[in-house]
Amino acid sequence: GAVVSQHPSRVICKSGTSVKIECRSLDFQATTMFWYRQFPKKSLMLMATSNEGSKATYEQGVEKDKFLINHASLTLSTLTVTSAHPEDSSFYICSARDGGQEYNEQFFGPGTRLTVL
Amino acid sequence: GQNIDQPTEMTATEGAIVQINCTYQTSGFNGLFWYQQHAGEAPTFLSYNVLDGLEEKGRFSSFLSRSKGYSYLLLKELQMKDSASYLCAVVDSNYQLIWGAGTKLIIKP
């Protein structure tokens, strides 16, 4: 099946610093990538949808200036949490949709656990 | 608004069968996914239904009734490793995934 990698898997940072998370589709071209956030014992919360070469579409309540998304190529999207604060601590998961698939399955990366001290 | 309902938690015995239900009200329908998610890990794909009926895949089966806005995931011959959360997600008319909150399945020996 299609493989999506995410890096780093775990990051601990000080309050006020910025953290970049990379999401890569390893064996397919991802026309669309999604960024999710998940709190403990809660379901996935879609933050934004990004299409290669265009600006990301953010969900209501998600600050675009705080969560910067770049989808520069068909295999790479990045999420930068700017000026991170403890309340940004969460599990961040990316997923990618294979443009060649006949249906809309999303392939998930392994997730990044962010802890802001 | 859009809504996906599934039980918060279920408990079953190793070797038994369990059915996890999902009901949905969404703006349009372009398919329903079931994902498995172990604690601290990303979701993994289990099944996809877009037509009514039962799809069987090994120990797991998924059923869909579009007229009733209803799906279930059936797990047979339960194993301890099946302890996980099971997420129901519907593709709406904008081809966006609408996620349920997940059902935590606890398997007891």
Largest interface (CB < 8 Å): A-B, 22 and 22 residues
Put simply, the count of helices of chain A is 0
**Helical residue percent of chain B?**
under 10%
Enumerate the spans of chain B where pLDDT stays under 50 for 5 or more consecutive residues: none
Q: Mean pLDDT of chain B, rounded to whole units?
A: 93
What is the percentage of strand-forming residues of chain A?
over 45%
Radius of gyration of chain B: 13 Å
Brief overview:
The complex is a heterodimer of chains A (117) and B (109). Chain A is mostly beta strands and 117 residues long.
Characteristic terms for this protein:
heterodimer; A: 117 residues; mainly beta; four-stranded antiparallel beta sheet; 0% helix; B: 109 residues; six-stranded mixed beta sheet; five-stranded antiparallel beta sheet; globular
How would you describe this protein?
- The complex is a heterodimer of chains A (117) and B (109).
- Chain A has strands at 4-7, 10-13, 19-25, 30-38, 45-51, 57-58, 67-73, 76-81, 90-98, 106-108, 112-116.
- With 117 residues, chain A is mostly beta strands.
- In chain A, strands 2, 4, 5, 6, 9, 10 and 11 form a seven-stranded mixed β-sheet that branches. In chain A, strands 1-3-8-7 form a four-stranded antiparallel β-sheet, with no helix packed on it.
- Chain B has strands spanning 3-5, 9-13, 18-25, 32-37, 44-49, 53-57, 60-65, 70-75, 84-91, 97-99, 103-108.
- In chain B, the strands form two sheets. In chain B, strands 2, 4, 5, 9, 10 and 11 form a six-stranded mixed β-sheet that branches.
- Chain B is globular and about 40 Å long.
- The model of chain B has no long low-confidence stretch (mean pLDDT 93).
- Chains A and B meet through strand 5 and strand 10 of A and strand 5 of B.
